[in-house]
Each structure stands twice: as C-alpha cells, then as structure tokens.
Amino acid sequence: MTALVIPDDEWRALAACSSADEASFFKSAPDVAKQTCRRCPVRGECLYDAVQADPPIGVWGGLTRKERRRLPELPPTRTAAVTSLRLLAAVADTRPPTPAKPGPARAKAQTPAVKRARRASADGKSSATKSKAKARRKKTAAAAAPAQAAAVADAAAPLVQVQVPAARLPFGTRYTPEQRAVYERLIVEQLRAGATYSQIIERIGVTAPTIVRVRRKYGLPRSTNKPVNPNTRSVAEALAVTTEPYGDGHTRWTGPLARRSLLLHAEGRRFNARRLLFEQHHGRPPVGPVRSNCGEQQCITGAHLTDGTLRSPTPQRRRARRPKPASERTTPMTAQPSTAAATAEALPVDQLLEWGDAHTDPEVQDQAARARVALVGLRRRHAADAELTAITSEAEELEQRLAELRARQAELTPAKKTAKKQAVQRDYEPATVRAWAKDNGVDCPASGRVPKTVVEAWRKAAQNKGGS
After folding, report:
1. pLDDT at 398
2. How confident is the model at residue 137, as a pLDDT?
3. Residue 292's closest CA among 280, 281, 300?
4. What are the two backbone dihedrals, phi and then psi, of residue 60, each rounded to the nearest 5 degrees?
5. Nearest 5 degrees, angle CA 133-CA 154-CA 1?
6. Cβ distance 164 to 2 under 8 Å?
7. Structure confidence at residue 323 (pLDDT)
C-alpha cells in the first residue's frame, strides 16, 4: 500500500515543528531538531521542498544542508520523489553518526634518504596489505552473517510495509547491511510482481547488475514483460505520464528537458510540450515564444499559455499570422461607409485621443495611450527628418558654391614660370679622361659620371705637360 502524499499547500499545518522551538532547527548542534523530524508525519514533503528550494541554513526533513546535498537524484514526479525521500530519511536515521576524525599529527622533518627508504618499503607491502585486508573483511562478514540476518529482517520490516521507491546513494557510499537488506527485499518484491528491469531501476534506483545479483541469489526467473516504448504512445497517453496537476488549475512538467524545451516523445515523433498544449487549447500554432501568464513560471496549462500575438496584439503581429491558402480566400465585398463611419474617420486626432481617454472600456483607454505615445514619436521623427533634409540641402548648396569659388580662384591666379636647368658645360671629354686614367693607372669607373678627383688629376697633368 503506497503512502499518502500531502499537497504543497496543506502539509505545513501537519508538521511536528509547528509547535516546537524554531530556534533549535538553526543551531550548530541539530540533534534536538532531528528528534522532532523523526516523529513528523510530513517529513518527506518537508524534505522535498527543502531539496527544491535549497535553503542555506537549518534542518529540514531531519537532514542538514550538507546531508541534503549528498542525496541522490530524485524521480521526476513529486509523489515518487516524496516517497523516495521518506525511505532515504528512514535509512539515514539507522546510520550511526560519523565520529569526528582527529587532525593529523605534525610529522618530523625527514631527510631525502629516509623518505626514499620508507616509500620503497610501502610499495613492497601495498599489494600484500590489500590482499590481507580483503580476506579479513570477507571472513568477518561470513562470521557475522547469521547474527545479522535477524537484525536485518527486523530493521527492514517496517520500511517494506510502506512500499515506496528508493533511490541510489551517491557514488562511493557504502551500504550498511540494514540498507542492503531493504533494497534486496524491495527488488525481490518487484521481481515477483513481474516488473521489468527498467521499471525496477526507475522505482527503486538500483543498477541492473544489482538486480541480476539479487535475482540469481534468490533463484527468481527473469521477467517476460517488455518495457513500453515511449515513441509508440499516443499524445494523450504521453501527456498523462509526463504532466502533474498542482495548485488551482496549474500543471507541472515532469518529463525530459532539453535546455528550456519540454520534450514529449509520442507517436514516433518528438514534440515541444508547451507549443503542443497551446495549439490544442487555442486551435492554432503559436507565433513566437510560448510563456505562462498565470504567475507560475513552470505552469504549462493550455489556458495559461500565451504567444507573441496574445501578449502584444499589434497590427504588425496580426499581419504576421499565417495566411490562408488561395482556395480558402474569398473576394471581399465592397461596402459603402455609413455616415457615422465617415464622421469618425473625419474626427481630428486630438479629439479622438480625448474620446479614448474618457472611454469606460480599459482596452480602449489602453489603445488611446499607445496611440498617443506613437503620435509623439511620429512627430519627433517628422521634425528630425525635416531638419535633416534642410541640413542636407544647405550642405549641397555650400559645396556647389565652394566649387565655383575654387574655379574662379584658379582663373585669377597667374601661372608660375619654371626655371629651366642649364646644361653643365664641361671642358673635358669623359672618354679622354678615362683613357688617360687607364694609361696612368688611375682608378676610374668605366661608365657613369667621372669622379671629380680623376678630373682634377687629369687637368693637373695636362697643365704640367703644357708648361713643359
């Protein structure tokens, strides 16, 4: 028989701490608070809310914040999570308190030679020490098995009477004999009831190798039931499994998530649950993102969901709706406007806004307010565009006037006379100087300009030759 789960808004009135000293739940020594929580009838509901909200201090459901963070991952639905937390809290009560470890003594300074010697000795003894410790544990467990069997059955009996799904402890946590007996008892009951491995894993939280070990230990046959493929379910069946009602007409999603999308697997397809529920309720596909407007962010009830069109019914949004096919379109009939319609169209804007402000319908007042804001924006934009046009025209006129002035300046400016460079008059022939330099052993390049030193030497030689 499954234990009753109290709704969110009712369990606080039944809590045992409602008449206890509240300060004892926020002290450094939580023993008194834990004693109160152990006799509380709504301990699972309190612990579930604490796991969801994660308060920084205080004892909730008989566990401190450090102990709550060590809890395993809970089932998706609130009912299964509360029942799992009840079993985990009961198992935690049977666990003896962990004694405080003394601080490590400060080791004396060791020389490198002593450290190397101790490290080599430890490496040689590690494998033998581990084997001996393992054999010692097996021998102790075998000797204590008969004495533990009665205690295990007595401890497991009150927990098994309330058939609640368990959950895996964190990785690396060792099960006590009492806890192992509880889980084995639950696995045996599920196997005898014909549950599949996947169903046992979901309900109890153990792994498949653990189920196989328990089944072989008790000689039970393997279940012939096959798990239901979620892709073969209908949309209604899938929604019934992955949603949970709560509060005043709200619905909570308990299925898989992909970031912010609610994944619904049904009929061999994958749906977005929010968009699907919106389309089922409103009869049309949503436009833009779908959000809840009831104050509950996690609510996915179709009547509480809105899209971009419902949140902002502007003309642009209306035009963005999906057009009808050509076969469904009809030619609109041209109707002559009535006298009242013509008068309303000819009404000045200011009078029309005053009429909207004084109207008794809040929607008309809202439209008038939005129109007034839009009109102010249009007037500002019109003034800015007019000023920008005037500035652009003036800039073009100034550029044209500047071009005319520059052209007139070029006409009036006299042309500058450029002095021509006079050719250098040489009193020598480069070929003659190079021939003289070659005959007299003077270094002179064969092409290009003749160095001045070579020319001076040639002139001096010519003067000496003429004087003699």
Report:
1. 94
2. 67
3. 300
4. -130, 125
5. 120
6. yes
7. 56
Separation of CA 247 from chain center: 27
pLDDT score for 152: 36
Cβ–Cβ < 8 Å for 196, 226:
yes
Low-confidence ranges of the chain (pLDDT < 50): 1-2, 100, 144-168, 170-172, 316-317, 320, 332-335
Residue 414, judged by CB atoms within 10 A of its CB (0-12, 13-18, 19+), counts as exposed
Residue 245 DSSP label: E
- Which residue has 């080599």 as its token pair? 120
Residue found under tokens 């003394």: 102
What pLDDT does 162 receive?
33
CA 428 to chain CA centroid, Å, is 92
Element (H, E) at 272: strand 269-272
Q: Residue 72 half-sphere exposure, CB side, CA atoms within 13 Å?
A: 21
Rounded to whole angstroms, the Cα distance separating 187 from 443 reads 112
Is the distance from CB of 212 to CB of 220 less than 8 angstroms?
Answer: no
Cross-strand pairs, 263: 272
Q: Name the residue with tokens 């998706």.
A: 76
DSSP helix, strand, coil percent of the chain (3-state; round to 5): 55, 5, 35
Phi, psi (5° rounding) for residue 77? -85, 155
Count of C-beta atoms within a 10 Å radius of residue 379:
10
Following DSSP, what letter does each residue of 313-333 receive, concatenated? Answer: --HHHHHTSPPPPGGG--PPP
Contact assessment for residue 372 and residue 353, using Cβ atoms and an 8 Å cutoff: yes
| C-alpha dist (Å) from residue 427 to 400, 432, 434, 450 | 60, 11, 14, 13
Q: What are the residues whose beta carbons fall under 8 Å from the beta carbon of 30, sequence distance 6 or more?
A: 24, 59, 64
Place of tokens 């949140």: 311
Q: Check residue 326 and give its pLDDT.
A: 56
d(CA 236, CA 7): 24
Tokens matching residue 198: 């996947």
β partners of residue 305? 292
Token digits for 265? 């697997």
C-alpha distances in Å from residue 251, one per residue of 84, 256, 298, 299: 22, 15, 8, 5
Q: Which has the closest alpha carbon to 433: 453, 408, 458?
A: 458
Q: d(Cα 166, Cα 201) in Å, to the nearest integer? A: 9
Secondary structure class of 305 (helix, strand, coil): strand
| Closest of 20, 58, 51 to residue 36, by C-alpha | 20
Structure-derived torsion over alpha carbons of residues 377, 379, 382, 388, reported in degrees to the nearest 10 = -80
Cα distance between residue 129 and residue 133, in whole Å = 6
For residues 241 and 263, give the distance between their C-alpha atoms in angstroms, rounded to a whole number: 13
